[in-house]
Amino acid sequence: MKMIEPGEIRALFVWKGENMSLISNSGHDENGGYRGGKAGDQIGTEWYLRSWYDRPWNCVIRHPNSKVRELIAELAVKAAKNDKIGYDQDERVTYWSQLQKVGYDPSKITVPCEEDCSAGVMANVKAVGYLLGIEALKNVPITSTWYMRDTLKNAGFEILTASKYLKSPDYLKRGDILLNDAKHTATNVEDGKYAGELTGTSSGTGGKITVNASMPILKKGMTGSAVRVWQQILCAAGYNTAVDSSFGDDTEEKTEKLEKAKGITKDPNQVGPAAWKAGLEILTAKKTF
Q1: What is the mean pLDDT of residues 100-108?
Q2: Where are the domains of the chain?
Q3: Which CATH class name applies to 218-286?
Q4: Residue 47 pLDDT more than 50?
Q5: What percentage of the chain carries pLDDT values higher than 90?
Q6: What DSSP string runs through 29-71?
Q7: The whole model's pTM is what?
Q8: Which residues contact 253 (CB under 8 A, 6 or more apart)?
């Protein structure tokens, strides 16, 4: 059995993750202006991925459903990488028109089209509504930054205004929407280093395990310290896998075996709260830490 090293025990209960801070950002056309440019991204930065910056932001708009947030981020990344999508305030709804035609997948858009910062974000939110069958999101209008805060709040989003969300990317979650009211908006596409914070307690055999919904969701393709801890849990449970901080095929297979043994319905997120709870209980019973 591979023992969890003392320096990693803390990661089981207060996971800090990696300090990633990319945002999907759209703010000008190929001429540095807001109107009159050629359709599509002519310079690669009309809509693109860039590092987080202090705009400043007035609020962070977060949907409570992790599936919604994940899809918002996924669409924002795909749109930023597709040079058929550019910036023009006068043609801002043509992105939404094309998005509908390709089944709400920005990477499949082949006809040059335009958006502006708010039209792009709101189109993606609407698309998520159609992809997940959520009426409140389907019905949001392609509004401007003047009205985004109230519009999204009414659609079920949370409005976060604490300084920790506004002054750095550390507490941001993938799929959070950044807003400077009446001026600019962008989509956060990477978890901040404290976004996956989780809590738990243990006092040996029979000890208390506390698991909450903010524990890091792990799935195939992810890397990092939380994946390494999960791999060590698998090994402690008798499902030996490489402890290499990379969630690959073998880790996926062993995760499925542990979940089956513990009566956990296969989680589409691969490692969710139920799996974490089972894993931590195994460690407690075995006095592995």
Answers
A1: 97
A2: 22-188, 218-286
A3: mainly alpha
A4: yes
A5: 59
A6: -TTSSSSS--SS-SSS-SEEEEE---S--SEEEE-S-HHHHHH
A7: 0.66
A8: none
